[in-house]
Amino acid sequence: MSEPKFTIRSDGQFGADIGALDAAIEFNETNKFFILEITGWCPKERKAEGAKIDKKYPLKETTTKKYNQAIEQNIQDSDGTLILLLEGNNADKETNYAIEKAIDFNKPSKTIILSKDSQENIKNINQTLNWLKDTKIEHLNVKGPRESNTSGIGEKTHSFILDLLKEISKDPDFFKK
Q1: What is the CA radius of gyration of the chain?
Q2: Domains of the chain (ranges plus CATH)?
Q3: What is the DSSP-derived secondary structure letter of residue 33?
Q4: 122-154 pLDDT, tens per residue?
Q5: What percent of the chain has pLDDT over 90?
Q6: Which residues pair with 2 in a beta bridge?
Q7: How buried is residue 113: exposed, middle or buried, by Cβ count under 10 Å (0-12/13-18/19+)?
Q8: SS3 string of 109-137?
Q9: Name one Pfam family in it (predicted).
Q10: Is the dihedral of CA 167, 170, 171, 177 positive or negative?
Q11: How many Å apart are CA 7 and CA 27, to the nearest integer?
C-alpha cells in the first residue's frame, strides 16, 4: 500500500475531536482513491471525561492522564492546527490551551466558526482549503470544544471535516507531496 498522503490528527475528546476522527474514518470507508491517515495522541488509559476513548480510534497514549500533554504532542507532530468552534459558543479551556501552544510552538493555526448557515460554512471550507494550500499542511491536527461544553459541536465538526475531505479529494494534486 502507498504511503499516506494526508493525515487527520486529534486527541479523541468527546466533541469536536471525535467528530473529526469519525469524519476521517467515514471518508476512508467511502473513498478508495486517496489514502488518509488517522492518528493522534490521547491521555494515558485513553481518558476522556470520565470515560474511555473507543479502541476504533487509532490513537497513541501519552505517558500521563493529563489532557495538556496530548494537546501539545498533537500540535508538535502536525504541520498545523485547525480550531473549530460553534457559532455563539466560546472555546473551552483545552481549546484555548491548544491555540496558545500552537503560537508557542510556532505552528500555523486557523480558527473557524461553524455556522448554522450552510452558505457560510461553504465559505469556511474554501477558507480552510486555501489555508491548507498556502501553509502546505499535509498533517492536520483538529481541535475544538468538548460536547459537554458546546452541545452539537461533534456533529457540526463531523459534517465540516467530511465536506472538507471531499473537497480536497476532488483535486488530485492536493495530496501530492
Answers
A1: 15
A2: 6-169 (3.40.50.450)
A3: S
A4: 899 999 999 999 999 999 999 999 999 899 999
A5: 75
A6: none
A7: middle
A8: EEEEEECCCHHHHHHHHHHHHHHHHHHCC
A9: cpYpsA
A10: positive
A11: 12
